[in-house]
Amino acid sequence: MSRSDERLELRDWLRVASVGLRSRPLRAALSALGIAIGTAAIVGVLGLSASSQAGLIAEINRLGTNLLTVEAGQSLTGGPAQLPREAPARITLLDNVQQVAHTALIKNTYVYRSSIVPVTETGGLQVRATSLNLLPVLGTGLARGDWLNRGTARLPVAVLGAVAAQQLGIDRVYPGQRVWLGSQWFDIAGILNPSPLTPDIDVSALIGYRAAQTYLGYLSIVGGEQKTGPPSSIYVRAATGHEAEVQSLLATTADPEAPYEAAVSQPSDVLTARAAAAGAFNSLFLGLGVVALIVGAVGVANIMIISVLERRSEIGLRRALGATKSQIRTQFLAESILLAVIGGIVGVLAGAMATAVYASTKNWAVIIPAKAWTGGIASAILIGAIAGLMPAIRASRMPPTVALRTV
Amino acid sequence: MSASVLELDGVTKVYGEDPLVPALRGVSFAVRPGELVAIVGPSGSGKSTLLHVIGTLERPSSGVVRIGGVDAAQLDDRELSKLRARNIGFVFQQFFLAEHATVRDNVADGLLYAGVRAAERYRRADEAIEQVGLSERAHFKPAKLSGGERQRVAIARALVGRPAIVLADEPTGNLDSTNGAAIMDLIRELNAAGATIIMITHDTGLAVQLPRQIRVLDGEIISDRTKGQKP
After folding, report:
1. Which residues of A touch B (CB under 8 A)?
2. DSSP H or E stretch at residue A165
3. What average pLDDT does the segment B111-131 reach?
4. Looking at CA atoms only, how far is residue B171 from chain A in angstroms?
5. Reported pTM
6. Which of the listed residues A7, A146, A172, A296 has the most CB atoms within 10 Å of its CB?
């Protein structure tokens, strides 16, 4: 009937360790609160940075990492370089190139809401001539209205990038709506969605190459003949998995005579870097969380010391009933750990909930990194053990006769 | 004559270092199984120290305390705890019940440290509760009980491990006379059923009701009388 050892079963330990919590629940809740706040802050910070990173990565995946751009860089003498007119056509012939589009930045030409806006107030907006296949290559689309076609590309008609439309105060497209571009009115055909991979397009008014030649005088002379162009930016969709290979050939293909004048880049690099930055957590809030945890630990230690003093008669009784010193020590240590773990669990749930609510408003996937919640619970256990150690030792060293001497 | 369940031989206890405060000065007596003994003396006579030494809650400065023939001085904290868990039941003046737990839990906890499985603890607790006449209140919390009922719970908790000795420290001290008398009846009843009980009291009126009285004054036994025997 009696076992040879007097060790308590786990269930008995749980019951004994929760005596303080059950007899004074409000006090237990308040002392666990500090730990809950600290854990919630840490889990929230880790969760939010992971979720925002996941959001960016999802966007990168949607946009694709296989877009490469070739820009006119600088000539050896330091002046602005030009890409050859034939560059896009040459790039199209490369292996593993799926699509090629291009635009030409028209320098010293700006777009205004109307003809009476002072010329210096350009709002940082650009005017670009564009090839007609730009949208599928960039992976963006129209927010309103229509894209350019072979007809409108010859006429004074513009499509506005998302930021350009906003800056010009245009949010709808209707017949007769115009902007002042160069030195004449252009009709608005449509407004684009944002293009995160190519922010230059967002701040541009896009017109056809023919229109740029006709109305703005942007042209090349080839063999004495006037031709459209040249492009200043070329957008290339490479076959997935062959980006590096295509990228290494782009400069020489675009400008075989002066490959160093062509600047080749992968726009998704910028987003990838931003995602990496979002993954680096906010150390200020993390620090605040740690401070809250320390304050919480002090609170738990304080409560445990008071508890040991208040429960002297309980300690004496348990000793009289046959509890050993180490059983008394374990009881109070377990109570402290239990208190901290309850705080830790509540904190993890609160942090996870905060992450879920914020991430859902941003349409991010909700990600609570495993290291956040396991770390939260583990640090709560550690804090409970550290905070409870001294009170538990004091409880176990209390002579039973002193413990039973009540006033 | 059966072997002593408790034996004290020349027990002294001195508190403090400077000045030395002697609380017990050479106390010797023996208790046989089934006895009901009153240790009686005014406050400051050393009877509480005597209770603590008998209960192995405190070690004597010198002399021998044997419980069931085992010399308590030879045992370490673990072994002493085991001895208390199995052989000694305590009843305190202030009851010391856990307020958040039911009567049944309180009584079953008397066996918590004795290495008895939960189901068996509760089975024996039900028995002990029946013995003290509280079966109908088994699921009450102490706050809903009268003082007399609370002391019955404490007695049931002391009995639940069927200890060799029950030590009762002023068990009626916090009770009115009616409840006190009822508790005394219960103590006699339990003794009649076989329990060895040592009761400590300052109340000579109570002590004379019991078969054996050990009078203590200034840390010494001044008389040890058993009813029916000549002094």
Report:
1. 1-9, 11-12, 16, 19, 22-23, 313-314, 316-327, 399-401, 404, 406
2. helix A162-168
3. 93
4. 15
5. 0.76
6. A296
Q: What is the mean pLDDT of residues A179-183?
A: 88
d(CA A140, CA A124) in angstroms, rounded, equals 22
Q: For B153-189, write each residue's pLDDT tens digit.
A: 999 999 998 999 999 999 998 889 898 999 999 999 9
Residues forming beta bridges with residue A188, ordered by sequence position: A158
Q: Residue A248 corresponds to which tokens in the numbers above?
A: 């290494």
User: How large a percentage of chain A has pLDDT more than 90?
Assistant: 39
Closest in B58, B112, B115 to A321, CB measured: B112
Neighboring chain A residues of B125 at a CB cutoff of 8 Å: none
Do residues A138 and A195 make contact, with C-beta atoms less than 8 angstroms apart? yes
- With beta carbons under 8 A apart, name residues in chain B contacting A11: 118
Task: Tell me if residue B9 falls in helix, strand or coil.
Answer: strand
Q: How far apart are CA A372 and CA A384, in angstroms?
A: 18
B6-15 and A126-130 as β-strands: parallel, antiparallel, unpaired?
A: unpaired
Query: What is the Cα–Cα distance from B13 to B49, expressed in whole angstroms?
Result: 8
So what's the pLDDT on residue A407? 45
pLDDT digits (tens, 9 = 90+) for A199-208: 889 999 999 9
| CB distance B39 to B199 below 8 Å | yes
Could you tell me how many residues make up chain B? 231
d(Cα B39, Cα B110) in Å, to the nearest integer?
A: 24
Query: Are residues A268 and A60 in contact, defined by beta-carbon separation less than 8 angstroms?
Result: yes
Amino acid (1-letter code) at residue A107: K
Q: How far is CA A152 from the centre of its chain?
A: 39
CA distance B167 to B84: 11
How is residue B173 annotated by DSSP?
Answer: T
Of A10, A318, A321, which to mutate for an interface test with B (greatest number of B Cβ within 10 Å)?
A321
B85 touches chain A (CB under 8 A): yes
Name the average pLDDT for chain A: 87
Burial-class residue A85 by CB neighbours within 10 Å (0-12, 13-18, 19+): middle
Cis peptide before B19 (omega within 30 of 0): yes
pLDDT of B2: 55
Three-class secondary structure of residue A125 per DSSP: coil
